[in-house]
Amino acid sequence: MLKKEYLIYKLSEAAREACKIDNELFPMYNVKRGLRNEDGSGVLVGLTQVGNVVGYERLPEGGLKAIPGKLFYRGYDVEDLARDFIKEKRFGFEEVAYLLLSGKLPDKEELSAFKELLNDNMPLEQKTKMNILDLEGQNIMNILARSVLEMYTFDANPDDTSRDNLMRQSIELIQAAEQLGTLRPQVVICSAVTLDPAMTGVIRHIRRSRHMAQVPVILLTSASRSGMKIEGLESEVDICLAFPFDIAHLRNVVGQLLRRYESLKDYGRSAYSAFDLAQGHLLHKEDKVFLDRMLEIIHGNILDTSLSTQFIADRMGMSLPNFYRRLGGVTDRTPACIIREYRLGLAEQLLVTTRLSIDEIIYKSGFSNRSTFFRGFVLRFGCTPKVYREQKVSEAMETDAGPGTEAGVEAETT
Questions:
Q1: Does pLDDT of 59 surpass 60?
Q2: What phi, psi does 191 have (nearest 5°)?
Q3: Gap between the Cα atoms of 224 and 241, Å rounded
Q4: Based on the number of CB atoms within 10 Å of its own CB, is 257 exposed (0-12), middle (13-18) or buried (19 or more)?
Q5: Are strands 64-73 and 51-58 parallel, antiparallel or unpaired?
Q6: If I label 384, which of 1, 6, 11, 309 is the partner at 20 to 30 A Cα–Cα?
Q7: pTM over 0.85, yes/no
Q8: CA of 3: how far to CAs of 11, 17, 72, in Å?
Q9: Is the peptide bond before 244 cis (omega within 30 degrees of 0)?
Q10: β-pairing, 76-77 with 64-73?
Q11: CA nearest to 232, candidates 352, 353, 357, 392
Q12: Average pLDDT, integer, range 121-131
């Protein structure tokens, strides 16, 4: 090992001497060192109308003064764009993408057509997803760059540099990036010798994320159960395994948790499947695509207690009258009814697949107050949320107690 490290050191020193350039040669040949001029200003390496970053201003007497960084897209201050989107309760994703591609903000008709174009490119093949998710590294910009290169493998016409083809590739990359951001792992395993604030914060963030509500969380630690109670983590994780532990036992625990969560999903059906089943008939493919897109929008904005039909129609790139006509051709349910049923379906999921409190579930399912939630839940399921949770968890535990369950695993469940 020493011989190998010494050889690397010798080559490193030799390379340093062989590549050494005298400092006076840089100004002599007008060569920039790094990305700064001698006065500290940025080096001009190209011309673009897409974006600009401003980090300093020139003083009248000469010299530069550092200022808080400003980012501009096509001449628009990004802070101004974000402020308008927040004020009008819009995400602005499609509008900014259109701005970057075309050089101008879209009007209503252009935005509607652009949203439809993005929706057409939304589904990613599973092979594509997994190849990109397998990329490892700690530098997010490096991972993004490699993700773009990975897409080359799955492009039917990757080497065509015509303007139309480059635009097609850009649109597919935009939608791929948005879709990949919604993927979630099958299980989360956290490891910590002691429960420091950073680890407890990570676990609580995972548990409160709407995308991770149905993902098992395992904690590997040397902390005692009393220590977990003090930290308030006993109800945040599914299972706590103490160091040292047998890796085969960990595999068994993971498998059992995944089976349990899958079993609980059968009881806490998602709002998607519950909505489809409630119709009592098979859906045409285009109707299924329409409903899936609508329910996806509802899910993505479930925390907004004022979620409206107008917002859903805008996100789907449709006028309000056209949206009502399209929905009326599939179901006789009103948008308000669908939103309410979806919230109740999500609340049912959270009841049986998480340890969240009732108040947390009310918040995560987007209900504005407790009375509305309890009244709707009892009307749909015939009992209170607490009783429903006890019944379904008991049924799932009976399923787990079947042949092949190792003794001792349940004893470690928090």
A1: yes
A2: -125, 130
A3: 10
A4: buried
A5: antiparallel
A6: 309
A7: no
A8: 12, 21, 52
A9: yes
A10: antiparallel
A11: 357
A12: 59
